[in-house]
């Protein structure tokens, strides 16, 4: 009679269509370490595709001049990438400042009121279900090994994987925006005005489909719902911008 050679949750991951993530020190695979750069990259690429395609389509619907359309697309790519990168840097820097403040507070408390901190850590592990004696032993062992990181992880959820990295987020977001924006811009540059708008729409929708699927798979999720969300939202944005561009072009 065959027996299972792995934990039950591994089979569950296979059933859900979730691929393996990187192996951690305790043998399990997780995806949360990707959350920082993955969020910034997906948001940047999505914004690049949708905003640039929508802008090009809006301008093309109002004025079919090839020069005007391409100029608008290049301006959208450069301005959007710079804005996205700066916005991510400022936002994540604020998050990092908050984390640093919490870390400084924990460090002060460990230096000045260590017994109170040990009791606090013990209480946390008691709330997790450990017996009072075992919770005390665990808290004491972790405190002896690395008190600051023990408190940051247990109290605040701050680990090496969740620390804010402004530069990484800014570069990921700006680069992803530029790549995403380059796709509809390339479609506009390589086609004539007669088929330009339809080609841009198709190129943008295909890019959004690839982005939604890739983002879901990198995050360990099923691709269908995230992909549909990205494609439907992007398509609606492009359609609305085209309608407004056409309306402005016929009235101005």
Summarize the structure.
By secondary structure, this protein is mainly alpha-helical. It is built from eight helices and no strands. Residues 1-34 have low confidence and may be disordered.
Structure commentary:
By secondary structure, this protein is mainly α. The chain contains eight helices and no strands. It has helices at about 10-15, 35-60, 65-110, 115-125, 130-155, 165-190, 195-220, 225-250. The longest helix is centred in the middle third of the chain and has 47 residues, at about 65-110. The chain starts with 7 loop residues before the first helix and ends with a helix. Helices cover about 80% and strands about 0% of the residues. The relative contact order is 0.17. It is elongated. Helix 3 packs across helix 4.
Helical percent range? over 70%
User: Span from first to last CA?
Assistant: 79 Å
- Return the structural class: mainly alpha
Main beta sheet: strand number and arrangement? Answer: none
- Secondary-structure element sequence? HHHHHHHH
The percentage of residues in β strands lies in under 5%
Mean pLDDT equals 80
Low confidence ranges? 1-34
The total of beta strands comes to: 0
Tally of DSSP helical segments: 8
**Overall geometry:** elongated
Q: What is the alpha-carbon Rg in Å?
A: 25 Å
């Amino acid at each position: 009679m065959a027996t299972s050679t792995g934990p039950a949750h591994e089979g569950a991951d296979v059933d859900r269509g979730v691929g393996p993530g990187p192996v951690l020190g305790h043998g399990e695979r997780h995806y949360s370490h990707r959350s920082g750069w993955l969020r910034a990259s997906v948001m940047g690429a999505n914004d690049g595709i949708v905003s640039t395609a929508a802008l090009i389509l809006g301008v093309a619907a109002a004025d079919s001049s090839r020069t005007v359309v391409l100029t608008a697309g290049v301006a959208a790519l450069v301005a959007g990438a710079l804005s996205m990168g700066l916005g991510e840097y400022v936002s994540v820097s604020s998050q990092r400042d908050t984390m640093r403040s919490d870390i400084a507070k924990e460090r002060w408390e460990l230096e000045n009121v260590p017994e109170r901190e040990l009791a606090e850590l013990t209480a946390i592990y008691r709330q997790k279900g450990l017996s009072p004696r075992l919770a005390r032993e665990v808290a004491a062992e972790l405190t002896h090994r690395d008190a600051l990181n023990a408190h940051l992880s247990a109290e605040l959820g701050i680990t090496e994987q969740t620390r804010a990295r402004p530069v990484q987020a800014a570069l990921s977001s700006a680069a992803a925006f530029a790549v995403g924006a380059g796709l509809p811009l390339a479609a506009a540059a390589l086609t004539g005005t007669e088929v330009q708008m339809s080609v841009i729409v198709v190129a943008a929708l295909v890019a959004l489909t690839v982005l939604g699927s890739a983002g879901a798979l990198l995050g360990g999720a099923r691709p269908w719902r995230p992909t549909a969300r990205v494609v439907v939202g992007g398509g609606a944005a492009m359609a609305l911008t085209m309608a407004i561009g056409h309306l402005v072009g016929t009235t101005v």
